[in-house]
Amino acid sequence: MDAKQIEGDLALDQTYIAEADIQARLRELAAEIARDYEGEDLLLVGVLRGAVMVMADLARALDRDVEMDWMAVSSYGSGTTSSGVVRILKDLDSDLTGRHVLIVEDIIDSGLTLSWLTTNLRSRKPASVEICTLLRKPEALKMVVDVKYVGFDIPNAFVVGYGLDYDERYRNLRDIATLAPHVYA
Ligand code: XMP
Ligand code: MG
């Protein structure tokens, strides 16, 4: 799905970050990551389901060998706000002992999910745990989360596409778009 569908969809407002800009930024982040982890083994941990697209494109932009593993977590709490109480729906298959772990996320909103997740992964005796997120909403942050790699800081609006959903829709949009206010207002 691309921008033409966005124009014809009343639920979507406008393209916010175009496909080409996402890909260009991911190539920059991949170059930084390759430099920072040179000579080390690297395990990318993707957070299902939103991070699927970021993982696929970031991993392929890296000019080096990496392993990929996946976790699925759910935040208890009402609807659109996360409570910080997180439940593991699918755990990693890998043992993290002594490994360099890079968490790959689509978006950091309140920061509660990633704050919990980094604490959890750090308890498994890895060599290091860092975070790479495509998007971050600085205005929404409730927890201080130390994020090493950020694609774009964005205002506190609801965005969809490139893995991000509204009620499971729009994940396969190639661009990132804002949701029309009438949809969530
Ligand atoms: P935290 O714990 O940082 O949770 O509040 C981040 C999770 O909230 C979801 N989220 C969004 N999903 N568009 C989305 O499609 C958004 O604008 C948005 N903001 C937050 C998402 O699941 C993320 O992992
Ligand atoms: Mg997510």
Automatic annotation (TrEMBL):
Species annotation: Mumia zhuanghuii
EC numbers on record: 2.4.2.8
Location of the Phosphoribosyltransferase domain: 22-166
Domain of life of the organism encoding this protein: Bacteria
Reactions the enzyme catalyzes: IMP + diphosphate = hypoxanthine + 5-phospho-alpha-D-ribose 1-diphosphate; GMP + diphosphate = guanine + 5-phospho-alpha-D-ribose 1-diphosphate
Protein known as: Hypoxanthine phosphoribosyltransferase
Gene: hpt
Family matches, as Pfam families: Pribosyltran (PF00156)
UniProt keyword Cytoplasm, yes or no: yes
PANTHER family, per database record: HYPOXANTHINE PHOSPHORIBOSYLTRANSFERASE, HYPOXANTHINE-GUANINE PHOSPHORIBOSYLTRANSFERASE
Pathway(s) the chain acts in: Purine metabolism; GMP biosynthesis via salvage pathway; GMP from guanine: step 1/1; Purine metabolism; IMP biosynthesis via salvage pathway; IMP from hypoxanthine: step 1/1
Cofactor(s) this protein cannot do without: Mg(2+)
GO cellular component: cytosol
